[in-house]
Amino acid sequence: MRGLERTVRTGPKLRLSADTILADALLSELVAPGPVLWVVSAWISNVEVIDNTQGSFDDILGDDHMTHYRLVDVLAKLARSGTPVRVVTRPTTHNQLFVDQMKAIASDDADLAVVFDPVEHEKTVCGRDWMISGSMNFTASGIGANEESVRYVVDNVEVAQARIDFVARWGGIR
């Protein structure tokens, strides 16, 4: 698909948050995984990303029978199912905690790789044919509390270019 784009400004003043955009994008990746999922964020936390209290996503999420899926749950699920997951973040104690949580629930054969980059400041999650980028870190404050500008794009060409750029910056991360 090519050329769908929306910029959303979030925060308490506008009564908007980016949580539903992120949830929908991650659910689409679970349904139709791309060649690699990139999560690039200076700060990253194990935030809740999918609310399945009504069981609406049971067919997509499988037999886990969880009602709330956190970011590590979804990333580990994708990595266990064969989707390469690449996480790039700053080398901080806060981010190390997230990485440790993610690795703890991913299987040993999961295709999961992490790069700690001390100058990383971009905020992007890039899936099959979609990308979310902007000022928002993938933290509770970034997703729900802060005033943020988030761009959601569905465009095969732009997403492919982002993946090329990520590999140029951080390699294949093996």
CATH class: Alpha Beta
Number of domains: 1
- What helical percentage do the residues reach? 25-40%
Mean pLDDT: 86
Helical element count?
6
Residue runs with pLDDT of under 50 for 5 or more positions = none
End-to-end CA span: 29 Å
- Structural class per helix/strand content? alpha+beta
User: Order of strands side by side in the largest beta sheet?
Assistant: 1-9-8-7-2-5-6
CATH architecture term: 2-Layer Sandwich
- In percent, how much strand structure appears in the residues? 15-25%
User: What is the CA-based Rg, rounded?
Assistant: 15 Å
The biggest sheet, with number of strands, parallel, antiparallel or mixed sense and barrel status, is: 7 strands, mixed
Q: How would you describe the shape?
A: globular
Number of strands: 9
Order of helices and strands: EHEEHEHEHEEEHEH
In CATH, the homologous superfamily goes by the name Endonuclease Chain A
Structure description:
The protein contains 6 helices and 9 strands, in the order E-H-E-E-H-E-H-E-H-E-E-E-H-E-H. The model has no long low-confidence stretch (mean pLDDT 86). The chain is of the alpha+beta class and 174 residues long.
Question: How do you describe this structure in short?
Answer:
The protein has 174 residues and is α+β, with helices and mostly antiparallel strands. The protein has six helices and nine strands, in the order E-H-E-E-H-E-H-E-H-E-E-E-H-E-H.
